[in-house]
Amino acid sequence: MAEAHSAVAFSFSITHEGWDVNFDREVLHLVWQSGIRSWKKRIARFKNNIRNGIYPAPLQSLWAIVAILAAVHFAKYGMVHTCINAILVLMPGSTLLWELLACLLLGMVVWLAIIYAVRYSLKLLLMYKGWMYEERGKGRVISTRTKIWFLFVKILSGGSRPLLYSYQGSLPRLPLPSLQETMSRYLRSVRPLLNDKDYSRMQKLAQEFQNGIGAKLQRYLVLKSWWATNYVSDWWEEYVYLRGRSPLVVNSNFYGIDAILIDSVRTQAARAAAVISICLQFRRLIERQELEPILIQGLVPLCSWQYERVFNTTRVPGVETDRIVHYMDSKHIVVYHKGRYFKVFIYFRGRILRPCEIEVQLEQILSDESLPAKGEEKLAALTAGERAAWAVARQEFFFKGLNRQSLDAIEKAAFVVALDDFPYEFDEHDPSKLDHYGQILLHGKGYDRWFDKSFTLCIGSNGRIGFNAEHSW
């Protein structure tokens, strides 16, 4: 991998004259800044987890409830006064300070009870799906039931501005259909594919399954649906995606294309730097949970967990099954150009690099005429082949040394950028160019995309962009 020489923070040696200690202050400063940034992220994540845990109530509501309970207590009125006196019995004293502490404890219990009652009520309301089937638009009449439902959902979810994961605890569980309903839907789905004789045989097999092993499997599913919020998602990821042994290219990975009707910047380095910067800003919004969750009609939330693994994520091959590895942070991206991999740092003194600073580094890469190291140019072809073969090669050739360090640099990158040395073309009068554009993004040359990464950002020599994305995350 083409990258800067390794920097050593400090080193020491023993000579006949004594100890010889050398240290690099700049590297130590970078290590210090990295630690500070890491702790800031941990603290921010902890604060966000608290906000998500008490949503839709703002934290200030706790002090309001404590103040109300304290006022009622000192007025010696009703059940509140009795409860606080019962708490004071368990405390070592009964001074004003202990009374206030008892008010705080009771206030927290009442506050949490209200929060969880609201969250559970919101979860019950979100189970209603009738709004999906009602027509919208001018002159259309929404049913009274749906209007009332909209009103209650708006009231219960309007306490404070939601963070990205604020609604996760209020989302309803995926409903588990009955075994009879599942078999009925299965038979309806296969009916157009079978003649009468084969369909009659399939009905008998379905009945045998329903009366036999199917009932036992259904009980397992019921048990899992009580334990997990989604009884199928982890199995779907494991058995539909990660256990597949065929190549990711074409079979699983997908691509996204540029806004082809917009005439964008034609300078490759400038466009790449701008898009990289936007991606990094988007990553920061996700990390800070400042990105607003998707709300259908501005009210009904969708699950936001997919955002968690957009960046800093890679799919690691295994002989029998792959696994998805997500890193909490990454300080660099990896750029591929003319068969060479470059490790590009994206932070300087605790801040994300500006687009102009990223562009300078990309210009240096584009003007670099060095040749790829032996085996470097087509290294990514391993990620395009059979998964078991890639797993064996990884264990044999990438378990230590420079190969291991280089592989870690790629897999721990925020994402991979491919700077192609040919243009991505589009012509309204020549559909074949758009076909070729899609082929470039879907599979490229088979060795110029790192297909295991969550996504590879691709930039043509004319500034047009696209991406290739791994599907399982």
Automatic annotation (TrEMBL):
The chain crosses the membrane at residues 54-75, 95-118. It is an enzyme of class 2 (transferase). It catalyses: 4,8-dimethylnonanoyl-CoA + (R)-carnitine = O-4,8-dimethylnonanoyl-(R)-carnitine + CoA; (R)-carnitine + hexadecanoyl-CoA = O-hexadecanoyl-(R)-carnitine + CoA. Keywords: Acyltransferase, Fatty acid metabolism, Lipid metabolism, Membrane, Mitochondrion, Transferase, Transmembrane, Transmembrane helix, Transport. InterPro entries: Carn_acyl_trans, Carn_acyl_trans_N, Cho/carn_acyl_trans, Cho/carn_acyl_trans_2, CPT_N. Pfam families: Carn_acyltransf (PF00755), CPT_N (PF16484). The active site is at residue 471. Its main location: membrane. Pathway: Lipid metabolism; fatty acid beta-oxidation. GO terms for biological process: carnitine metabolic process; fatty acid beta-oxidation. The keyword Transferase applies. Its EC number is 2.3.1.21. It is found in: Membrane; Mitochondrion membrane. It comes from the Eukaryota. Residues 174-473 form the Choline/carnitine acyltransferase domain. Residues 1-47 form the Carnitine O-palmitoyltransferase N-terminal domain. It is a multi-pass membrane protein. Coiled coil: none annotated. Belongs to the carnitine/choline acetyltransferase family. This is carnitine O-palmitoyltransferase. It comes from Cryptotermes secundus. The gene is Cpt1a_4.
